[in-house]
């Protein structure tokens, strides 16, 4: 894994993205060269804006692939499924590049050239992915790991390693038991370790050892063996770091105040706050102008359906526990909470109107929160704001819940794009673990990644309620 601005990025995903950017960039030059074989067609190589056109096209292709989840890699995906998934991504890229040419006509190269460019780019990306999957079958892209421990924590780490194939393809060697620990894994996966962990790691050519043991005290814990493994080039990490890296979660049960104080991250410096403020203003102003016609159309539909108010104002808890009124398009009936008692929203909530069910699935109901961002009450990316009634309840039941209020809440965030919509204390705990990851590792780079995942959520309808 690469670490960019405190965020773990898969080397495989990063390499594939760079490769496909270069393929798309080269496709523009190749398309122009082929078209120039007809001597009646003008040369593009000397045109001042040609390079910017090539870069714009390559960025548009990479953005479209990201927006449709093409970098959440399935190592077992066949050529046919890859082709079928690439088609809508390039259709989106075609739509976007056509709009850009309309706004910036100097970038336009002509239909003949762009037709060739799209053929070359799509073919190159498909061929590159075929080679990529063939390489993955040879185990060159797999990481060989050993889990130290056989208890519940080791079992959870094992399940995560098996399920997180979007960024990694693991070759799990097995589990090394520790004395006085329960066994929750199948006996066939337990490794004989009479010769010691160092010899075991060398024998199986392990790349990494994940320490998944709850109790690390006492003579039974092989601290010296783990140090020897590290000195011999085998990476050693604990379960908390494994979950943070692989799932973008900070596990609440593994948190200690000392770790929060002395650990890395939790950047609240002036430069970070300033850059985030500029990012919020620029993105929000651009999105407000872009979606204004859609918001006017949505407001008209809401009025036509039941003649009720367009907006729904609700008190939410913001930074440092300060309350403010969040602004959303009304998606429920006028008397949704007649008893004046806050209720968790649920999937297929019967209180939702017909217009409301559509705008909630497409996340259009969230758009008026842009005004909250412009007023400085929210950020574009951050933890989802909750109502004071629920915050008071959750602070009592969920450890470290109040830490999410150390930064401004956001319209979108890590929990919103990674976790299906939840409506319970258990769901709040799972979402908090994503929020804590964002609070710890927040950066401009992570904000951009979350925005890309948000586009994917909107286009594919993930997590709608």
UniProtKB/TrEMBL annotation:
Species of provenance: Undibacterium parvum
Family, as annotated: Belongs to the bacterial sugar transferase family.
Membrane topology annotation: Multi-pass membrane protein
Positions of transmembrane segments: 12-30, 50-71, 83-104, 110-132, 278-304
Name used for this protein in its record: TIGR03013 family PEP-CTERM/XrtA system glycosyltransferase
Any one cellular-component term (Gene Ontology): membrane
Compartmental location: Membrane
Gene Ontology molecular functions: phosphotransferase activity, for other substituted phosphate groups
Major subcellular site: membrane
Domain of life the protein comes from: Bacteria
Keyword terms, alphabetized: Membrane, Transferase, Transmembrane, Transmembrane helix
Domain Bacterial sugar transferase: 276-459
């Amino acid at each position: 894994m690469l670490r960019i601005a405190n965020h773990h990025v898969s080397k495989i995903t990063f390499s594939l993205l760079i490769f496909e950017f270069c393929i798309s960039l080269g496709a523009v030059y190749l398309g122009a060269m082929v078209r120039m074989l007809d001597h009646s067609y003008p040369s593009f190589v000397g045109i001042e804006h040609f390079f910017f056109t090539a870069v714009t096209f390559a960025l548009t292709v990479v953005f479209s692939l990201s927006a449709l989840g093409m970098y959440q890699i399935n190592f077992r995906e066949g050529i046919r499924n890859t082709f079928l998934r690439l088609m809508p991504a390039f259709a989106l890229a075609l739509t976007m590049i056509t709009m850009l040419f309309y706004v910036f006509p100097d970038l336009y190269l002509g239909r003949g050239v762009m037709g060739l460019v799209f053929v070359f780019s799509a073919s190159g990306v498909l061929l590159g992915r075929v080679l990529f999957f063939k390489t993955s079958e040879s185990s060159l892209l797999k990481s060989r790991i050993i889990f130290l421990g056989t208890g519940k924590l080791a079992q959870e780490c094992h399940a995560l390693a098996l399920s997180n194939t979007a960024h990694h393809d693991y070759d799990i060697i097995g589990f090394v038991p520790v004395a006085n620990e329960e066994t929750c894994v199948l006996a066939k996966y337990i490794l004989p370790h009479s010769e010691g962990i160092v010899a075991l790691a060398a024998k199986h050519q392990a790349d990494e050892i994940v320490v998944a043991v709850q109790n690390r005290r006492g003579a039974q814990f092989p601290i010296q063996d783990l140090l020897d493994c590290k000195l011999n080039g085998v990476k050693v990490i604990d379960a908390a770091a494994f979950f943070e890296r692989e799932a973008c979660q900070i596990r609440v049960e593994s948190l200690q105040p000392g770790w929060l104080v002395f650990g890395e991250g939790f950047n609240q410096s002036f430069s970070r706050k300033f850059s985030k403020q500029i990012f919020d203003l620029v993105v929000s102003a651009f999105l407000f102008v872009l979606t204004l016609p859609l918001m006017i159309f949505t407001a008209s539909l809401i009025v036509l359906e039941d003649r009720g108010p367009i907006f729904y104002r609700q008190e939410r808890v913001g930074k440092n526990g300060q309350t403010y009124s969040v602004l959303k398009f009304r998606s429920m009936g006028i008397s949704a909470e007649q008893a004046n008692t806050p209720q968790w929203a649920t999937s297929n909530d019967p209180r939702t109107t017909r217009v409301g069910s559509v705008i909630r699935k497409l996340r259009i109901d969230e758009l008026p929160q842009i005004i909250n961002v412009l007023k400085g009450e929210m950020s574009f990316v951050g933890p989802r704001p909750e109502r004071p009634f629920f915050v008071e309840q959750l602070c009592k039941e969920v450890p470290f819940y109040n830490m999410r209020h150390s930064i401004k809440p956001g319209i979108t965030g890590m929990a919103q794009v990674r976790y299906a919509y939840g409506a319970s204390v258990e769901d709040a705990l799972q979402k908090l673990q994503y929020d804590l990851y964002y609070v710890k590792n927040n950066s401009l780079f992570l904000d951009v990644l979350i925005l890309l995942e948000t586009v994917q959520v909107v286009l594919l309808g993930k997590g709608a309620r």
